[in-house]
Write a structure and sequence with these properties.
mainly alpha, 2 helices, about 95% helix, about 0% strand, elongated
Length: about 55
């Protein structure tokens, strides 16, 4: 289960980075902000999973 959540976090970070870069390239501030938000969600999910791993071991 943890591996699945970690993969989701990485995917969300990558998707956010792509959206942010695309938004910046085409000049769409809304898309750029949405991309940053997705990256932050991915970062938070990843931090949560790392904390879980710390307490498991």
């Amino acid at each position: 289960m943890a591996r699945n959540q970690k993969a989701k976090a990485k995917a969300e970070q990558a998707k956010g980075k792509i959206k942010e870069t695309t938004g910046r390239t085409v000049g769409n501030e809304s898309m750029e902000a949405e991309g940053r938000l997705e990256q932050a969600r991915g970062d938070a999910r990843q931090a949560k999973e790392k904390a879980k791993d710390t307490f498991r071991h």
